[in-house]
TrEMBL record:
GO terms for cellular component: plasma membrane. Residues 11-26 have a biased composition (Polar residues). It is found in: Cell membrane. The lineage of its organism: Eukaryota, Viridiplantae, Streptophyta, Embryophyta, Tracheophyta. This is CASP-like protein.
Length: 179
């Protein structure tokens, strides 16, 4: 009878256990559900950010006349901007290992596209005096500003994929192995 009372006492205490930080401890099932919810949210965010970035880049164009010559700014004039559109356009996969692999590849593709577009954008905005490349954003400021917006959304997509890489790795590591 005393042992039954002791079992009742310990079972009523266990669900209320807290971690060393004072926060209630969650079950592995709750942790897994939280991780899956975080992944779903990050995947949706990454898709939304890339769709916004693609739509801004593709619809971005400006024409100006400089010294009697027509100058057109469009993403297809730059291989770096075309690469950024391509890097943003890749689809999603389903298997955990392939999701991790996909997330790593997407993260690398997007950051390399962002780096190339940032470099070209910097030269467009400020020029390169040592190479005698003149800035062009003074002529097509609307185009440059919209490209900056698209680039910002591409960087947000990169950060979403960076977090997805971490959560995919955690999911893969926490899966039970079968012998």
């Amino acid at each position: 009878m005393a042992s039954e009372a002791c079992k009742e006492k310990t079972s009523s205490v266990l669900p209320q256990m807290t971690s060393s930080s004072g926060l209630p401890m969650s079950s592995p099932r709750q942790q897994r559900m939280s991780l899956l919810l975080a992944q779903a949210t990050l995947r949706i965010s990454a898709i939304v950010f890339t769709l916004i970035a693609i739509s801004v880049i593709v619809t971005n164009a400006q024409s100006v006349i400089v010294f009697g010559l027509k100058f057109e700014a469009h993403y297809t004039n730059s291989t770096a901007f075309k690469f950024l559109v391509g890097a943003n356009a890749v689809q999603q996969l389903k298997n955990y290992f392939f999701l991790l692999l996909h997330d790593v590849v997407m993260m690398v593709l997007i950051i390399s596209g962002c780096a190339a577009a940032t470099a070209i954008g910097y030269v467009g905005r400020y020029g390169e005096k040592k190479m005698t490349w003149q800035p062009t954003c003074g002529y097509v400021s609307k185009y440059c500003n919209r490209m900056s917006i698209s680039l910002a959304f591409s960087y947000l997509a990169f950060f979403a994929y960076l977090l997805l890489t971490f959560t995919s790795a955690l999911t893969l590591m926490s899966r039970p192995t079968t012998q």
